[in-house]
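[recover] target loaded
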């Protein structure tokens, strides 16, 4: 069930998770923020974990399910990012950079889920 496209989403979700970990460290050490930072750490790193899990899905339906959950986590991460920006824990420049990566992941995951569902119907 693995294709070149999946490797792209794997690489991007892993790089994104590393950025989220750096953001978490910054929020805890510099901003002394301990609640929102845990939320974004959890959702932002679980995207890649779910994508990795999908490599060994038991079926096409299981693969779609895991990718769909990864999409939900990416969507949740977007919420925490907006909240961190609007509550002034992160600056606009930092937000814009990491948010654009998050949006890119969301688009990739939407595309993978959509095309996988279409092939499942055939």
């Amino acid at each position: 069930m693995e294709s070149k496209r999946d490797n792209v989403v794997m690489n991007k979700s892993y790089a994104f998770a590393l950025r989220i970990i750096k953001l978490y460290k910054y929020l805890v050490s510099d901003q002394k923020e301990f609640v929102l930072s845990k939320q974004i750490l959890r959702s932002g790193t679980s995207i890649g974990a779910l994508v990795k899990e999908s490599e060994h899905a038991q079926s096409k339906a299981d693969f779609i399910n895991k990718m769909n959950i990864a999409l939900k986590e990416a969507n949740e991460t977007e919420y925490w990012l907006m909240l961190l920006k609007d509550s002034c824990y992160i600056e606009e420049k930092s937000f814009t950079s990491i948010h654009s990566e998050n949006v890119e992941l969301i688009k990739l995951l939407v595309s993978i889920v959509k095309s996988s569902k279409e092939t499942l119907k055939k």
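[recover] notes: The longest helix spans residues 92-121.
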